[in-house]
Design a protein that fits this description.
This protein is an alpha+beta fold and about 180 residues long. The protein contains four helices and nine strands. Strands 1, 2, 3, 4, 5, 6, 7, 8 and 9 form a nine-stranded mixed β-sheet that branches. The N terminus is likely disordered.
Amino acid sequence: MLKLLPPPLCRRAGLVLAATLLLAAQAHAVGLKPGLWDYSVQSSTNGAPPVDLSQMMHNVSPAIKAEIEAQMKARGMAMNLGNQTLRLCLSPAFVAAKRPPLHLSGQCTMHWSQPTQDDWDFSYACTGPTSSGKGHIVLASPTAYTTQFTAVTPQGTVSGTSKAHWVSGDCGGVPPLQPAP
């Protein structure tokens, strides 16, 4: 998917995608509502300015944009360029699984702290491609949470904050994420 983009856009798009998949892993584990969720992510790679999704997608050909959107849809995600968010659909089975999905790139191991009433710490390590990270989730309600995270990848260190909020019980055209087998 991303290999067709110029190298700087490929790295940024890959990191945004990795961060979003990690956010999905965080969402289901804390018992949030199933349905459509909006994720806004502000991240920086090696201290560079945050990625502007609409500008990144504006700079690619329609064919590459369609391929990226198809790959994201296959993973249960959609871009909402108007408000700079990524949308994910969490199925009831995904939320009920109470374990992180291991469908991040490579083989991943996730470690979760014992949650308190409204926060949770996590760390992970993946191979092929290699990445690791840690973060902290603060649950505001069953329909909103924030995450601070740091990930170390071959492209550099990504640090950021995400805000997630539930949009609807109906996911529309976004296919639901299912728990990993």
